[in-house]
Design goal:
Blueprint lengths: L3 E6 L16 H4 L5 H5 L2 H9 L7 E8 L7 H14 L2 E11 L6 H9 L4 E7 L3 H7 L6 H13 L3 E8 L6 H12 L5 E6 L7 H7 L8 H17 L3 E4 L2 E3 L6 H7 L4 E4 L4 E4 L2 E5 L3 H9 L5 E6 L2 H12 L6 E2 L5 H12 L3 E4 L2 E4 L1 H5 L1 H9 L1
Parallel strand pairs: 1-2, 1-9, 2-3, 3-4, 4-5, 5-6
Antiparallel strand pairs: 6-8, 7-8, 10-11, 11-12, 13-15, 14-15
Helix pairs in contact: 3-4, 3-12, 4-5, 5-7, 8-10, 14-16
Length: 373
Protein backbone atom coordinates (compact mmCIF):
# COMPACT_ATOMS: atom_id res chain seq x y z
CA UNK A 1 0.00 0.00 0.00
CA UNK A 2 1.02 3.58 -0.61
CA UNK A 3 -0.26 6.94 0.67
CA UNK A 4 -0.23 10.23 -1.26
CA UNK A 5 -0.29 13.57 0.54
CA UNK A 6 -2.03 16.81 -0.41
CA UNK A 7 -0.73 19.82 1.54
CA UNK A 8 -3.07 22.80 1.58
CA UNK A 9 -1.53 26.27 1.77
CA UNK A 10 -4.58 28.52 2.32
CA UNK A 11 -2.97 31.93 1.80
CA UNK A 12 -3.23 34.37 -1.11
CA UNK A 13 -2.17 37.99 -1.47
CA UNK A 14 -5.48 38.81 -3.20
CA UNK A 15 -8.68 36.86 -3.80
CA UNK A 16 -9.54 36.32 -7.48
CA UNK A 17 -13.10 37.22 -8.50
CA UNK A 18 -14.04 33.67 -9.57
CA UNK A 19 -12.35 31.83 -6.70
CA UNK A 20 -14.40 29.67 -4.35
CA UNK A 21 -11.46 27.76 -2.86
CA UNK A 22 -10.71 27.64 0.86
CA UNK A 23 -8.21 30.51 0.77
CA UNK A 24 -7.62 33.63 2.83
CA UNK A 25 -5.81 36.93 2.40
CA UNK A 26 -3.84 38.36 5.34
CA UNK A 27 -6.49 41.06 5.82
CA UNK A 28 -9.21 38.41 6.12
CA UNK A 29 -7.32 36.63 8.88
CA UNK A 30 -5.81 39.40 10.95
CA UNK A 31 -6.24 43.10 10.28
CA UNK A 32 -3.09 44.60 8.81
CA UNK A 33 -1.07 41.40 9.21
CA UNK A 34 1.63 40.33 6.78
CA UNK A 35 1.68 36.87 5.25
CA UNK A 36 4.67 35.94 7.42
CA UNK A 37 2.74 36.73 10.59
CA UNK A 38 -0.37 34.73 9.72
CA UNK A 39 1.58 31.75 8.38
CA UNK A 40 4.56 31.59 10.72
CA UNK A 41 3.18 28.73 12.82
CA UNK A 42 1.13 27.17 10.03
CA UNK A 43 3.78 24.62 9.02
CA UNK A 44 4.09 23.59 12.68
CA UNK A 45 0.37 22.82 12.64
CA UNK A 46 0.63 20.78 9.44
CA UNK A 47 3.47 18.74 10.94
CA UNK A 48 1.36 18.13 14.03
CA UNK A 49 -1.48 16.77 11.89
CA UNK A 50 0.95 14.56 9.98
CA UNK A 51 1.38 12.47 13.12
CA UNK A 52 -2.18 11.14 12.68
CA UNK A 53 -1.68 9.83 9.14
CA UNK A 54 -0.95 6.18 8.30
CA UNK A 55 2.69 5.24 7.89
CA UNK A 56 2.84 4.06 4.28
CA UNK A 57 5.39 4.81 1.58
CA UNK A 58 4.59 7.98 -0.37
CA UNK A 59 4.56 8.12 -4.21
CA UNK A 60 3.26 11.70 -4.61
CA UNK A 61 2.99 14.95 -2.63
CA UNK A 62 1.06 17.95 -3.96
CA UNK A 63 1.22 21.43 -2.43
CA UNK A 64 -1.90 23.35 -3.50
CA UNK A 65 -3.76 26.40 -2.37
CA UNK A 66 -4.04 29.22 -2.12
CA UNK A 67 -0.61 30.16 -3.36
CA UNK A 68 2.03 27.77 -1.97
CA UNK A 69 4.80 29.67 -3.76
CA UNK A 70 4.24 32.62 -1.41
CA UNK A 71 5.88 30.62 1.38
CA UNK A 72 9.65 30.19 1.61
CA UNK A 73 10.97 26.94 0.19
CA UNK A 74 12.53 26.05 3.52
CA UNK A 75 9.10 26.14 5.22
CA UNK A 76 7.52 23.84 2.63
CA UNK A 77 10.67 21.72 2.68
CA UNK A 78 10.07 21.00 6.36
CA UNK A 79 6.90 19.15 5.37
CA UNK A 80 8.68 17.13 2.68
CA UNK A 81 11.49 16.24 5.10
CA UNK A 82 9.03 15.16 7.79
CA UNK A 83 7.09 12.95 5.37
CA UNK A 84 10.34 11.45 4.07
CA UNK A 85 11.57 10.70 7.58
CA UNK A 86 8.24 9.37 8.86
CA UNK A 87 6.78 7.52 5.89
CA UNK A 88 9.52 7.21 3.31
CA UNK A 89 9.27 8.34 -0.30
CA UNK A 90 9.28 6.10 -3.35
CA UNK A 91 12.39 6.41 -5.50
CA UNK A 92 10.48 8.38 -8.14
CA UNK A 93 8.22 10.33 -5.77
CA UNK A 94 6.47 13.18 -7.61
CA UNK A 95 6.44 16.39 -5.54
CA UNK A 96 4.42 19.24 -7.07
CA UNK A 97 4.28 22.94 -6.22
CA UNK A 98 1.43 25.17 -7.42
CA UNK A 99 2.79 28.63 -8.18
CA UNK A 100 1.68 32.09 -9.23
CA UNK A 101 3.92 33.24 -12.12
CA UNK A 102 4.47 36.58 -10.38
CA UNK A 103 5.69 35.00 -7.15
CA UNK A 104 8.84 33.19 -8.33
CA UNK A 105 12.45 34.15 -8.95
CA UNK A 106 15.35 32.06 -10.19
CA UNK A 107 16.77 31.94 -6.67
CA UNK A 108 13.45 30.91 -5.17
CA UNK A 109 12.93 28.15 -7.78
CA UNK A 110 16.41 26.75 -7.13
CA UNK A 111 15.57 26.66 -3.43
CA UNK A 112 12.35 24.73 -4.08
CA UNK A 113 14.35 22.13 -6.00
CA UNK A 114 16.91 21.91 -3.20
CA UNK A 115 14.07 21.26 -0.75
CA UNK A 116 12.69 18.33 -2.72
CA UNK A 117 10.25 19.62 -5.34
CA UNK A 118 10.56 18.19 -8.86
CA UNK A 119 7.33 19.33 -10.56
CA UNK A 120 5.75 22.80 -10.77
CA UNK A 121 2.36 23.99 -12.00
CA UNK A 122 1.82 27.63 -12.92
CA UNK A 123 -1.59 29.30 -12.87
CA UNK A 124 -1.66 30.84 -16.35
CA UNK A 125 -5.46 30.86 -16.93
CA UNK A 126 -5.25 32.99 -20.11
CA UNK A 127 -2.85 34.92 -22.33
CA UNK A 128 -5.40 37.69 -22.95
CA UNK A 129 -5.25 40.68 -20.57
CA UNK A 130 -9.00 41.39 -20.83
CA UNK A 131 -9.81 37.78 -19.86
CA UNK A 132 -7.44 37.94 -16.89
CA UNK A 133 -9.09 41.21 -15.87
CA UNK A 134 -12.53 39.58 -15.92
CA UNK A 135 -11.17 36.74 -13.77
CA UNK A 136 -9.62 39.33 -11.44
CA UNK A 137 -6.20 37.72 -11.87
CA UNK A 138 -3.26 39.90 -10.90
CA UNK A 139 -0.40 38.44 -12.94
CA UNK A 140 1.00 39.88 -16.14
CA UNK A 141 0.60 37.28 -18.93
CA UNK A 142 4.18 37.92 -20.05
CA UNK A 143 5.38 36.69 -16.66
CA UNK A 144 4.20 33.17 -17.43
CA UNK A 145 6.86 32.67 -20.12
CA UNK A 146 9.44 34.20 -17.80
CA UNK A 147 8.44 31.90 -14.94
CA UNK A 148 8.50 28.78 -17.13
CA UNK A 149 11.95 29.65 -18.50
CA UNK A 150 13.26 30.27 -14.98
CA UNK A 151 11.83 26.97 -13.75
CA UNK A 152 13.41 25.06 -16.63
CA UNK A 153 16.75 26.81 -16.14
CA UNK A 154 16.63 26.00 -12.42
CA UNK A 155 16.23 22.30 -13.27
CA UNK A 156 12.54 21.40 -12.99
CA UNK A 157 11.94 18.27 -15.07
CA UNK A 158 8.14 18.62 -15.25
CA UNK A 159 6.38 21.95 -15.79
CA UNK A 160 2.62 22.42 -16.18
CA UNK A 161 0.31 25.36 -16.80
CA UNK A 162 -3.37 25.67 -15.89
CA UNK A 163 -5.83 27.33 -18.27
CA UNK A 164 -9.48 28.34 -17.82
CA UNK A 165 -11.95 28.59 -20.70
CA UNK A 166 -15.45 30.01 -20.90
CA UNK A 167 -14.75 33.32 -19.17
CA UNK A 168 -17.40 35.96 -19.94
CA UNK A 169 -16.25 38.07 -22.93
CA UNK A 170 -13.77 35.40 -24.08
CA UNK A 171 -14.13 34.53 -27.77
CA UNK A 172 -13.03 31.35 -29.51
CA UNK A 173 -10.14 33.31 -31.06
CA UNK A 174 -9.13 34.57 -27.60
CA UNK A 175 -9.08 30.99 -26.39
CA UNK A 176 -7.07 29.82 -29.41
CA UNK A 177 -4.43 32.48 -28.72
CA UNK A 178 -4.19 31.42 -25.08
CA UNK A 179 -3.77 27.73 -25.89
CA UNK A 180 -1.23 28.46 -28.61
CA UNK A 181 0.68 30.73 -26.22
CA UNK A 182 0.75 27.97 -23.62
CA UNK A 183 1.90 25.36 -26.14
CA UNK A 184 4.72 27.66 -27.27
CA UNK A 185 6.23 27.45 -23.77
CA UNK A 186 8.80 24.89 -22.62
CA UNK A 187 6.20 22.83 -20.73
CA UNK A 188 5.23 19.15 -20.47
CA UNK A 189 1.63 19.35 -19.25
CA UNK A 190 -1.54 21.42 -19.68
CA UNK A 191 -4.72 21.43 -17.60
CA UNK A 192 -7.73 23.21 -19.12
CA UNK A 193 -10.81 23.69 -16.97
CA UNK A 194 -14.20 25.10 -17.88
CA UNK A 195 -15.03 28.11 -15.73
CA UNK A 196 -17.65 27.30 -13.12
CA UNK A 197 -19.21 30.39 -11.56
CA UNK A 198 -19.74 29.63 -7.89
CA UNK A 199 -22.44 31.32 -5.82
CA UNK A 200 -21.04 33.91 -3.45
CA UNK A 201 -18.08 34.91 -5.59
CA UNK A 202 -17.46 38.40 -6.93
CA UNK A 203 -17.88 37.13 -10.50
CA UNK A 204 -21.25 35.56 -9.70
CA UNK A 205 -22.46 38.91 -8.37
CA UNK A 206 -21.22 40.69 -11.49
CA UNK A 207 -23.07 38.26 -13.73
CA UNK A 208 -26.23 38.62 -11.65
CA UNK A 209 -26.02 42.40 -12.07
CA UNK A 210 -25.73 41.97 -15.83
CA UNK A 211 -22.15 43.21 -16.08
CA UNK A 212 -21.07 39.96 -17.76
CA UNK A 213 -22.80 37.25 -19.75
CA UNK A 214 -21.75 33.59 -19.70
CA UNK A 215 -20.88 31.89 -23.01
CA UNK A 216 -23.39 29.41 -24.44
CA UNK A 217 -22.92 25.63 -24.45
CA UNK A 218 -21.96 25.51 -28.13
CA UNK A 219 -19.06 27.90 -27.61
CA UNK A 220 -17.91 25.96 -24.53
CA UNK A 221 -17.95 22.73 -26.59
CA UNK A 222 -15.97 24.38 -29.39
CA UNK A 223 -13.41 25.62 -26.86
CA UNK A 224 -12.92 22.12 -25.43
CA UNK A 225 -12.57 20.48 -28.85
CA UNK A 226 -10.12 23.20 -29.88
CA UNK A 227 -7.77 22.73 -26.92
CA UNK A 228 -7.86 18.96 -27.49
CA UNK A 229 -7.02 19.39 -31.18
CA UNK A 230 -4.20 21.89 -30.56
CA UNK A 231 -2.66 19.84 -27.74
CA UNK A 232 -2.69 16.59 -29.72
CA UNK A 233 -1.07 18.37 -32.70
CA UNK A 234 1.80 19.44 -30.41
CA UNK A 235 2.39 15.98 -28.93
CA UNK A 236 0.35 16.47 -25.75
CA UNK A 237 -1.90 13.44 -25.33
CA UNK A 238 -5.21 13.57 -23.53
CA UNK A 239 -5.16 11.34 -20.45
CA UNK A 240 -8.04 12.71 -18.34
CA UNK A 241 -11.01 14.91 -19.23
CA UNK A 242 -9.19 18.19 -18.51
CA UNK A 243 -5.55 17.17 -18.83
CA UNK A 244 -2.99 16.67 -21.61
CA UNK A 245 0.70 15.84 -21.31
CA UNK A 246 3.81 14.71 -23.11
CA UNK A 247 4.61 11.03 -22.58
CA UNK A 248 5.71 10.33 -19.01
CA UNK A 249 4.63 13.71 -17.67
CA UNK A 250 1.09 12.89 -16.54
CA UNK A 251 0.30 14.22 -13.06
CA UNK A 252 0.57 11.03 -11.01
CA UNK A 253 -0.87 12.72 -7.94
CA UNK A 254 -4.15 13.52 -9.68
CA UNK A 255 -4.22 10.03 -11.21
CA UNK A 256 -4.14 8.69 -7.64
CA UNK A 257 -7.38 10.61 -6.99
CA UNK A 258 -9.04 9.30 -10.14
CA UNK A 259 -7.98 5.73 -9.33
CA UNK A 260 -9.42 6.06 -5.81
CA UNK A 261 -6.06 5.42 -4.16
CA UNK A 262 -5.39 6.42 -0.55
CA UNK A 263 -4.44 10.03 0.15
CA UNK A 264 -4.27 12.28 3.20
CA UNK A 265 -5.02 15.99 2.99
CA UNK A 266 -3.03 18.12 5.43
CA UNK A 267 -4.37 21.56 6.34
CA UNK A 268 -7.68 23.38 6.85
CA UNK A 269 -10.49 22.16 4.63
CA UNK A 270 -8.31 19.40 3.15
CA UNK A 271 -10.05 16.16 2.16
CA UNK A 272 -8.71 12.64 2.63
CA UNK A 273 -9.60 9.14 1.43
CA UNK A 274 -8.43 6.01 3.25
CA UNK A 275 -9.79 2.58 2.30
CA UNK A 276 -13.30 3.72 1.38
CA UNK A 277 -13.59 6.30 4.16
CA UNK A 278 -13.65 10.02 3.28
CA UNK A 279 -13.12 12.81 5.78
CA UNK A 280 -12.35 16.51 5.74
CA UNK A 281 -10.91 19.09 8.11
CA UNK A 282 -12.37 22.25 9.58
CA UNK A 283 -12.04 25.04 7.04
CA UNK A 284 -10.69 28.07 8.86
CA UNK A 285 -6.92 28.18 9.49
CA UNK A 286 -7.35 29.57 13.02
CA UNK A 287 -9.78 26.81 14.02
CA UNK A 288 -7.51 24.23 12.41
CA UNK A 289 -4.41 25.43 14.27
CA UNK A 290 -6.28 25.67 17.56
CA UNK A 291 -7.38 22.04 17.29
CA UNK A 292 -4.08 20.46 16.25
CA UNK A 293 -2.05 22.41 18.80
CA UNK A 294 -4.53 21.23 21.46
CA UNK A 295 -3.98 17.61 20.30
CA UNK A 296 -7.59 17.47 19.02
CA UNK A 297 -8.36 15.99 15.61
CA UNK A 298 -9.10 18.70 13.03
CA UNK A 299 -11.48 16.39 11.17
CA UNK A 300 -14.87 18.06 10.80
CA UNK A 301 -16.89 15.28 9.18
CA UNK A 302 -16.46 11.85 7.63
CA UNK A 303 -18.37 9.27 5.63
CA UNK A 304 -17.89 5.59 4.86
CA UNK A 305 -18.69 4.76 1.26
CA UNK A 306 -21.10 1.90 0.66
CA UNK A 307 -20.26 -0.80 -1.93
CA UNK A 308 -22.84 0.82 -4.22
CA UNK A 309 -21.22 4.26 -3.84
CA UNK A 310 -17.78 2.83 -4.53
CA UNK A 311 -19.06 1.06 -7.64
CA UNK A 312 -20.60 4.32 -8.93
CA UNK A 313 -17.42 6.23 -8.24
CA UNK A 314 -15.32 3.62 -10.05
CA UNK A 315 -17.50 4.19 -13.12
CA UNK A 316 -17.52 8.00 -12.76
CA UNK A 317 -13.75 8.24 -12.33
CA UNK A 318 -12.75 5.46 -14.71
CA UNK A 319 -14.62 6.83 -17.69
CA UNK A 320 -12.75 10.15 -17.35
CA UNK A 321 -9.42 8.47 -18.11
CA UNK A 322 -7.62 7.70 -21.37
CA UNK A 323 -7.56 3.98 -20.43
CA UNK A 324 -11.34 4.06 -20.09
CA UNK A 325 -13.74 1.95 -18.11
CA UNK A 326 -13.52 -1.81 -17.67
CA UNK A 327 -16.53 -3.46 -19.29
CA UNK A 328 -16.52 -6.06 -16.50
CA UNK A 329 -17.57 -3.32 -14.04
CA UNK A 330 -20.85 -2.80 -15.89
CA UNK A 331 -24.22 -4.53 -15.61
CA UNK A 332 -26.18 -5.65 -18.72
CA UNK A 333 -28.61 -2.71 -18.49
CA UNK A 334 -25.69 -0.26 -18.29
CA UNK A 335 -24.12 -1.80 -21.39
CA UNK A 336 -27.45 -1.44 -23.16
CA UNK A 337 -27.54 2.29 -22.40
CA UNK A 338 -23.95 2.66 -23.60
CA UNK A 339 -24.87 0.89 -26.83
CA UNK A 340 -26.93 3.92 -27.87
CA UNK A 341 -24.05 6.27 -27.13
CA UNK A 342 -21.75 4.05 -29.17
CA UNK A 343 -24.09 4.19 -32.16
CA UNK A 344 -24.06 8.00 -31.96
CA UNK A 345 -20.27 8.26 -31.81
CA UNK A 346 -19.85 9.26 -28.16
CA UNK A 347 -18.02 6.13 -27.03
CA UNK A 348 -16.03 3.33 -28.58
CA UNK A 349 -15.09 -0.12 -27.36
CA UNK A 350 -11.47 -1.25 -27.34
CA UNK A 351 -10.77 -4.79 -26.15
CA UNK A 352 -12.29 -4.87 -22.63
CA UNK A 353 -12.67 -1.09 -22.23
CA UNK A 354 -15.23 1.64 -22.84
CA UNK A 355 -13.52 4.79 -24.14
CA UNK A 356 -14.96 8.27 -24.60
CA UNK A 357 -14.50 9.92 -27.99
CA UNK A 358 -13.67 13.67 -28.03
CA UNK A 359 -17.37 14.57 -28.44
CA UNK A 360 -18.23 11.98 -25.81
CA UNK A 361 -16.05 13.80 -23.32
CA UNK A 362 -18.32 16.82 -23.72
CA UNK A 363 -21.21 14.86 -22.20
CA UNK A 364 -19.26 12.62 -19.81
CA UNK A 365 -21.33 13.72 -16.81
CA UNK A 366 -24.58 12.95 -18.62
CA UNK A 367 -23.36 9.48 -19.61
CA UNK A 368 -22.30 8.74 -16.04
CA UNK A 369 -25.69 9.90 -14.66
CA UNK A 370 -27.60 7.66 -17.04
CA UNK A 371 -25.63 4.51 -16.24
CA UNK A 372 -25.29 4.96 -12.49
CA UNK A 373 -28.71 6.21 -11.35
Amino acid sequence: MTLSFYVHIPYCIKRCGYCDFNTYTPAELQDGATLEIVSNDYIDAVLEELNAAPIEEVPTIFFGGGTPSLLPATDLGRVISAIRKRNGLTKDCEITLEANPDSVTGEKLASYLENGFNRISFGMQSAKPHVLATLDRTHNPENVARAVDLARAAGFQSISVDLIYGTPSESLDDWRESVEAALSLDIDHISAYALIVETGTKLAAQIKRGEFEMPDDDLMADMYLLVDQLCEAKGFSWYELSNWSKSGHECRHNIAYWENKNWWGLGPGAHSHIEGKRFWNVKHPSAYKEKVFSKVSPIQESEILSPEQMARESIMLGIRMREGLQISLLEPHQLEILGTYRENGYIQLHEDRVLLTPVGRLIADRIVREITF
